[in-house]
Amino acid sequence: MRILGVDPGLTRCGLGVIDASGGRKVSLVHVSAATSPSTSNTPARIARLADALDAVLDEHQPEAIALERVFAQSNVSTVMGTAQISGVVMLAAARRGLPLALYTPSEVKAAVTGDGRAAKAQVGYMVSKVLGLTEVPKPADAADALAIAIAHAWRGGAAPLGNTASTAAQRRWAEAEKAARKRG
Amino acid sequence: MRILGVDPGLTRCGLGVIDASGGRKVSLVHVSAATSPSTSNTPARIARLADALDAVLDEHQPEAIALERVFAQSNVSTVMGTAQISGVVMLAAARRGLPLALYTPSEVKAAVTGDGRAAKAQVGYMVSKVLGLTEVPKPADAADALAIAIAHAWRGGAAPLGNTASTAAQRRWAEAEKAARKRG
């Protein structure tokens, strides 16, 4: 399954496309960070990011979109722009008939690193390892978009983890996910 | 000038179109409140409201959009949906090349009633008087959308008020607007 992960933001919007096959295998299809200049007015910035989103959707034809969930409680100065972009991503998903899933930052961290409170650098490191990349995608928004797509691939499908997890690592992972959901 | 006022919301989105001619003359072109069922998922709800917005834009061809400004500090449970819809309205404005202006609720109240803290009923009453309607448009979101359009017509153009305001009523109005801007 081809998945587009989106790390929404008005200044930088991470866009990462992966292919997920059976088990936990994932591979990189595309990664970028769309940007908009803070000197433009907000409608022009939103349109610019929407154009970049449409271009990725047209070129790579993902079958699902995974989007970071925005909270009103987070950084007040950026949350409104982030919510506005999220609305645009949701509209694009609905108009193209693509299923859209939302993940909190801690759910993504838990899925990719096993720790819902992992540092950004650790998420980037795991993304590069899992996708077999020689370096961490930059900027962080690009790596985060891939992490969101990976979280969707792993949580949504092939190898769900839960109470049946058997190894110690899998149990820690399941617990981190559970804790992340509680915090979310 | 034809103006579309939008009172954004995920459950109900007010859409009001007016024609503004010279001086303070305004007339009703269209008013409605687009709704989306809370049982649907958010992308489907956003798409439904976006379709209603596009229909009004296509049919009435406004030359400008006035949108209520959303604050992260307001009601947390509804602010994210409101911000998402705002993003969609801004995208529509940018893609159609329409100028978009933002007004705080108190700016709108000040422009339409002369009091930045006027009650909802007072705003509805003034909207009906100013547009020569026999009754107040319902629901409140519809009346609010018209109030936002009227605020844009009056503030943006024909009869700007400021220190040169001469009558007592105009001075009170100017002061209310100034206070509203400070609070905004």
The CATH class label of chain A is Alpha Beta
- Average pLDDT reading of chain A: 87
Order of helices and strands of chain A: EEEHEHEHHHH
**In CATH terms, what is the fold-level topology of chain A?**
Nucleotidyltransferase, domain 5
- Strand proportion of chain A: 15-25%
- What is the CATH architecture assignment of chain A? 2-Layer Sandwich
- Which structural class best describes the helix and strand composition of chain A? alpha/beta
CATH superfamily of chain A: Ribonuclease H-like superfamily/Ribonuclease H
Roughly how many Å is the radius of gyration of chain A? 16 Å
Number of domain modules of chain A: 1
Helix content of chain A: 40-55%
Per the principal axes of the C-alpha atoms, what is the gross shape of chain A?
Answer: globular
Multimeric organization: homodimer
Unreliably modeled segments of chain A:
157-171
Largest interface: A-B, 26 and 26 residues
Strand segment count of chain A? 5
Question: What would you say this structure looks like, in words?
Answer:
In chain A, β2 and β3 form a beta hairpin. About 8% of the residues of chain A have low confidence. The radius of gyration of chain A is 16 Å and the shape is globular. Chain A is built from 6 helices and 5 strands; from the N terminus they run βββαβαβαααα. Helices cover 51% and strands 18% of the residues of chain A. Chain A has one domain: Ribonuclease H-like superfamily/Ribonuclease H (Nucleotidyltransferase, domain 5, 2-Layer Sandwich). In chain A, strands 3-2-1-4-5 form a 5-stranded mixed beta sheet. The interface between A and B is medium-sized, with 26 and 26 residues.
